Please model this.
Amino acid sequence: MPQDIAINGDNAVALAWKQIDPDVCAAYPITPQTIIVEKFAEYVANDEVSTEFVCVESEHSALTLCTSSASSGARTFTATASQGLAYMWEMLPITAAMRVPLIMAVANRAVSGPININNDHGDAMAARDCGWLMLFSENVQEAYDISIMAPKIAENPNVQLPCMVNLDGFVLTHAIERVTTVDTHDIKKFVGEHQPLYPLLDTKHPVSHGNMDGPDFYYPHKYQSVLAMEKALEVCEEVFEDFKKMTGREYHLVEQYKCDDAEFVAFVLGSSYGTMKATVDLLREQGIKVGCAMPRVYRPWPVEDLAKIMDGKKAVVVFDKHLSIGSYGPMFPEIVAAASDLDKLPKMYNVIYGLGGADATVQGFEKSLKAVADGKAEKIHYLGVRL
Model:
């Protein structure tokens, strides 16, 4: 039966994994992800799951093993953060190109240097072009729920892509919140038995994985992933709807709050969405019509849904928790591109905030949005930076 429990984000992800009971898990510990694999290893040691757990010597080895495992036909999970994801980087596009639907929890953390273990989105954004599905969580409940939905999305025959489940390091990974669980029997029925496509161990139907592609094949091979990403938008919506029927909890490609009558809209990712909603309420009390939105699905990029939210607005403010040094934040140009087909382009502003775990506060967000409403905002603003 569903229960309300107090649990942190890492343990919530591990609990979802336990209830799904994957075939293989290989991972290497790294703060602030370590709790996930520690707890899951405990489930393995106690025979609470049938998973083959492999302790590897590095994150590169973890993803290499997981890609091989998933290629063989096993439902496979892993987890990492920051430098661990960076160490996996060589394998990230290979895993995507091999079209294996493995699931990886990413406890979002700043990428060195300087050395920093706190939250921002530098790790996920550095990996955004590698061909992985990318889903973001606002709170611990969502980290748990998305961990359940991810394999159903990734393993869909029309998708067959690896998926990152992102949750903000420390802010969610170590924060204890109330979570309503789903009955294990219902989860297993929802996710279903793994039906791998073209597994290496199907000796009656031999296949090759990870082949060399010349120019005649590399480009169309990549384009197949483009088509899979397009299909993934539809699949995400279908899975979200099925999850709603099972739990009553509702998810969308882009979550939005008070955007319908808003004159100004703020876009933000991850746990800061909750802070932004509080900011919207505060500004509404002051008579400023502000709304906010979060792309739940960051890859594939939900262009049409984003454009609808921006249509008719006076201004759009994109809050990026990462900086593409020498340019804007990574989400800003993509939001601008999503608005490019509108009859009238809103004024577009970029706010860089929270790098290396710098505070993301209602007061800071309020100041940035009021500057936009008053027509006094800079095109790109570095919120709270101290020199």
